[in-house]
Every structure is written in structure tokens, then in C-alpha cells.
């Protein structure tokens, strides 16, 4: 995939089109166009509307979410324009009674009169707090609803999933995203690689994502490569120059066999292994000859401890003789905790007996359908894995398929609007709002609070009453040590306002890591996390309930 060709010049810099060329004005639901026509027919299409994009519940049974997808939304509206072909298609889809003037109107609209305010991408966010506020002509903003929700939903879900895996694995472990082959199509695969990196993963196996986004790539070989060899006789080119180029080993295969013999004698008293699989050894030697600086072997094709690990060590020690350092092994099956510990012990024995500094710390990578639960179990059992390759459960978000973002009208022509429901969680919070995060003495976030746009903002050191939006008895005073306003302008349209520059992927990733560090661990833990508090100001609380009573019909008993 390549970014599409359209660009719009803005005051600060040119904004490219969406990464995925399928993201066009037609990437929407039909009812957005039927509503647009009805607005136009009623001469309401230019009414100034304010919509909030938010979600109602954190995913994966957790108590936090990571916001992602903002850049793609800004790329989309910066280049929003219906082509003649697209308008012709819309005409075919709508009723033949629709007037020609509406299609002329569609041909002239763009997002120059739209304003977008949002929380910074990569931020930790919570239910009910608007991730984005979109202001503009109601018909135009409605056409943005479906693509915006689509671009935010999956991106935020995958980024959150990655952040959760990072939290369980710990900061010191290398996390590799291996999910492309199991992802939901090409777009799901490329998008997942991007947002897993944003959420804390270190690298991907996805070459397309590496090219598009500059994500570091990792990968070695599969079981097929190992089983494709039948023995050392297949290796015809056996020579290998030393790392510094000063000498050449004419027969690297024999050097490896020599080391394997030494390893057998070393381990004979312990009964670790006897004869290893020679076809596996041939595969390892062949791969080492191809990539002497990046030799990492998949060791579970036949038997990890009786063949794979000894064969790897023989090749690694032969490489060491020539000044190279092997990268490590990958375990893709079996009892990962036990096998990693046994492998680490073997590495330490090799380091001690053959006096090879650092060999005991050789990298051990584990894969094989890993998820949060298996990472947590490995931690409890004790393991020696340095890197985790995670695929299916990560990129497909197997534990929860959707985040559930919504896009609700909260104000039109300066008149606040509310959406009511018998399910209180579905009641919207009306009017144009500002959002703030209040931090405590230890630097951790305490509570998010929403207030009306014209209310004075909360200040550090000031005693603030924070109220639950709907539950009268849930309230608390907070004296924040620091106050952070969450929403900033990312698209001012034609308004003369400063616009936040879109950060790079690396900057967003760094921001995400910093945000996660500012959350208390009890909010982040996998089991029974402490709910994070989301509140409203007293004035906004009173207004919500005033409007609720004003809009709810009064029943009549007979």
C-alpha cells in the first residue's frame, strides 16, 4: 500500500492522503448520504454541529485504553473531496427523486469549514471522555462519522492490546510482532504492525509495514527451512571468512562437527544428548554461512535439548572462532518455561567449560500462540526467555474483536443536545466540553474531569469537586499537583487557529510509553484492575441532569 496521491497544503506543512487508498469519502455507510440529503432538503446542511467521538467501555476487561488512529483521520479530512465518479455512484444509490442540486452540493464540499480537536495520539484514555471533537456543517461532519470511527476503532484496540502485552512481559523483554499471516487481510496486517509498534512492541516481521512506517524488522527461518536439508553433504560452499576478514576457514562444516564432538564429550556424563539430527545441523550451518552476523536458529523441529540446542551451540562456537557472535535461538513449541531454563543452563555450561565470555547470555526467543495469559503464566513459573514473538492473539485482538467507539451529536447551532437511553451507560454528555487530567503528588494520574467550554479550567493546588456524570452519590474532592488539558486543535479548517503538528510514529510511541508510566499499576494489572475515575464539574453535572429532565418525556398514569 502507498499513500494516495492527493495532498492539501496547510499553513504549516503538506498533509499526505491516507495510508490506505481505500479510505475515501465512499468509505462510509449509506445512511450518511441519505441524512446529508435530508439535511440539504430541509436547508439544515450548514447548521453548525459539534460531535464527540468516544467509547463506553475499556476493552479486554481492563481499565485503560490507548488512543490511536488520529493521524489517519487528519490525513483523510485534509484530502476530503468527492470525485465526479463517486458522486455519480452516490446518485445511483439514492432515490431517483433526489434533486440535482444536492449532487452539485456534494461536488463542492470539503473540510475547510471543519475543526477537529483531539487528545494526542498514543495517550491513555478512558470511557466517556471525548477522544475527538469534530465541529462543522452538520451534513459534512456526518459524512466523516463512519470513516473516523473505522479508523479509530481497530487502531486503538490493537494499540491497547500491544500495551497490555508489554505490561505483562515487562520493560526488559524484546517484543516482536509476528501476526501478518493470521491478520484479517492485508490492511489488518499492516495496520496491526503499525499500532503494535506504537503500543510498545520493538519490531515486526511485516516487510510492508517496515517500508511504510520505518518499523524495525526481525525474522530468521521456519521449520520448512530446517526440514528441507537431508545432511551436511548438501553444503557445497563451505568456506567462511573471519569477521575481520583477516583469515578464511576453508571447511566451516568440519569446524562445526569438531565443536559438536567437544560438546558431546562435555555432556556425556550428564546424558544431555547423544547423536543430533544431522539434517538439522546442515540447515543451521547453511544459514550461518549465509548470515554469519545474524545467526538465530529455530531449535524445535526435531528435539530441542537432544538436537536443536547442541547443534546451535556447535555452529555458534564455530562462528565464535571466526570472530562472530550468534544471535540466539527460537523456541516455537513445548514447555517454554522448562525448555528456556534448560537451554540457559546449557549455555552457561558452555561458557564456563569453553571460556566463551557472554555465551551464557545468548538470546532465547519464544513464540507459539502466545498471549497475555501465557506471558503471565511464564512469569509465575519462572523462565529464561529474552524475546517473545507474538502473532495471532495480538493482531486479531482475539480476546475482544471491537472497541465500540461512538460518534454523538452534543451541540447544534450553540444548542446543547443529549441522547437518552434506559441504559445509563448510553446516555451522552451534552455540549461542547473541555477535558483535563488531574495528577497527584507521586506524579500518577488521579482522575479525568470534563467541564463546559466556558467554565474556568481547574488549577494545580486548587480544591476541585469531581462528580460522577450520572450517579449523585459518587463525588470526591481533589487537590491536583498538576493539571493537563487533554484536547488540542489538530485541524482548524479555515479558522485562524494554531494547529498541532502530526508527530512521527517514533514520537507517538515515546508518548505512549510515557503515558503508561504515569498510570498507577493497579489500574493496569491484568486481573481485577482498579477502575480509573472519570468525572464532570459540578456545573456540567447540573446541566446534564437539567437537560435530561427537560428532554425526557413525562409519563401519564391512568
Automatic annotation (TrEMBL):
Pathway: Cofactor biosynthesis; NAD(+) biosynthesis; nicotinate D-ribonucleotide from nicotinate: step 1/1. It holds the Pfam family NAPRTase_N. InterPro entries: Aldolase_TIM, N/Namide_PRibTrfase, NAPRTase_C, NAPRTase_N, Nic_PRibTrfase-Fam, Nic_PRibTrfase_pncB, Nicotinate_pribotase-like_C. PANTHER family: NICOTINATE PHOSPHORIBOSYLTRANSFERASE. Belongs to the NAPRTase family. Catalyzes the first step in the biosynthesis of NAD from nicotinic acid, the ATP-dependent synthesis of beta-nicotinate D-ribonucleotide from nicotinate and 5-phospho-D-ribose 1-phosphate. Helps prevent cellular oxidative stress via its role in NAD biosynthesis. This is Nicotinate phosphoribosyltransferase.
Amino acid at each position: 500500500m502507498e499513500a494516495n496521491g492527493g495532498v492539501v497544503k496547510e499553513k504549516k506543512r503538506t498533509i499526505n492522503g491516507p495510508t490506505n487508498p481505500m479510505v475515501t469519502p465512499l468509505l462510509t455507510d449509506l445512511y450518511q448520504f441519505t441524512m446529508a440529503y435530508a439535511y440539504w432538503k430541509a436547508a439544515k446542511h450548514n447548521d453548525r454541529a459539534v460531535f464527540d467521538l468516544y467509547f463506553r467501555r475499556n476493552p479486554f476487561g481492563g481499565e485503560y485504553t490507548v488512543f490511536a488512529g488520529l493521524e489517519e483521520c487528519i490525513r483523510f479530512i485534509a484530502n476530503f473531496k468527492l470525485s465526479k465518479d463517486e458522486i455519480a455512484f452516490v446518485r445511483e444509490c439514492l432515490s431517483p427523486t433526489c434533486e440535482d442540486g444536492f449532487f452539485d452540493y456534494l461536488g463542492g464540499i470539503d473540510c475547510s469549514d471543519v475543526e477537529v480537536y483531539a487528545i494526542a495520539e498514543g495517550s491513555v484514555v478512558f470511557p466517556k471522555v471525548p477522544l475527538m471533537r469534530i465541529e462543522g456543517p452538520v451534513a459534512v461532519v456526518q459524512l466523516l462519522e463512519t470513516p473516523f470511527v473505522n479508523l479509530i476503532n481497530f487502531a486503538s484496540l490493537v494499540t491497547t492490546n500491544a500495551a497490555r502485552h508489554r505490561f505483562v512481559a515487562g520493560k526488559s523483554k524484546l517484543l516482536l510482532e509476528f501476526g501478518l499471516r493470521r491478520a484479517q487481510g492485508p490492511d489488518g496486517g499492516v495496520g496491526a504492525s503499525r499500532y503494535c509498534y506504537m503500543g510498545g512492541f520493538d519490531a515486526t516481521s511485516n516487510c510492508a509495514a517496515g517500508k511504510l512506517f520505518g518499523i524495525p524488522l526481525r525474522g530468521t527461518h521456519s521449520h520448512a527451512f530446517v526440514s528441507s536439508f537431508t545432511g551436511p553433504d548438501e553444503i557445497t560452499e563451505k568456506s567462511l571468512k573471519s569477521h575481520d576478514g583477516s583469515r578464511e576457514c576453508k571447511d566451516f562444516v568440519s569446524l562445526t562437527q569438531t565443536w559438536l564432538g567437544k560438546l558431546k564429550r562435555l555432556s556425556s556424563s550428564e546424558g544431555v544428548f547423544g547423536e543430533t539430527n544431522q539434517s538439522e545441523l546442515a540447515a543451521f550451518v547453511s544459514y550461518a554461512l549465509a548470515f554469519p552476523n545474524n545467526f538465530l536458529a529455530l531449535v524445535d523441529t526435531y528435539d530441542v535439548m537432544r538436537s536443536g540446542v547442541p547443534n546451535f551451540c556447535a555452529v555458534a562456537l564455530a562462528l565464535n572462532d571466526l570472530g562472530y557472535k550468534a544471535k540466539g535461538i527460537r523456541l516455537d513449541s513445548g514447555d517454554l518455561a522448562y525448555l528456556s531454563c534448560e537451554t540457559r543452563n546449557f549455555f552457561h555450561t558452555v561458557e564456563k567449560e569453553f571460556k566463551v565470555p557472554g555465551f551464557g547470555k545468548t538470546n532465547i526467543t519464544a513464540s507459539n500462540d502466545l498471549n497475555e495469559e501465557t506471558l503471565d503464566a511464564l512469569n509465575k513459573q519462572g523462565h529464561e526467555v529474552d524475546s517473545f514473538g507474538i502473532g495471532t492473539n495480538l493482531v486479531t485482538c482475539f480476546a475482544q474483536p471491537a472497541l465500540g467507539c461512538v460518534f454523538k451529536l452534543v451541540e447544534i447551532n450553540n444548542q446543547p443536545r443529549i441522547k437518552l437511553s434506559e441504559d445509563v451507560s448510553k446516555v451522552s454528555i451534552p455540549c461542547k466540553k473541555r477535558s483535563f487530567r488531574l495528577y497527584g503528588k507521586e506524579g500518577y494520574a488521579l482522575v479525568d474531569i470534563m467541564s463546559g467550554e466556558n467554565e474556568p479550567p481547574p488549577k494545580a493546588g486548587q480544591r476541585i469537586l469531581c462528580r460522577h456524570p450520572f450517579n449523585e452519590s459518587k463525588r470526591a474532592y481533589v487537590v491536583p499537583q498538576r493539571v493537563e488539558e487533554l484536547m488540542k486543535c489538530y485541524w482548524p479548517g479555515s479558522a485562524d487557529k494554531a494547529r498541532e503538528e502530526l508527530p512521527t510514529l517514533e514520537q507517538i510511541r515515546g508518548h505512549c510509553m510515557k503515558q503508561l508510566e504515569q498510570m498507577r499499576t493497579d489500574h493496569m494489572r491484568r486481573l481485577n484492575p482498579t477502575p480509573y475515575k472519570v468525572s464532570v464539574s459540578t456545573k456540567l453535572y447540573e446541566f446534564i441532569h437539567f437537560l435530561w429532565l427537560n428532554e425526557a418525556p413525562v409519563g401519564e398514569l391512568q
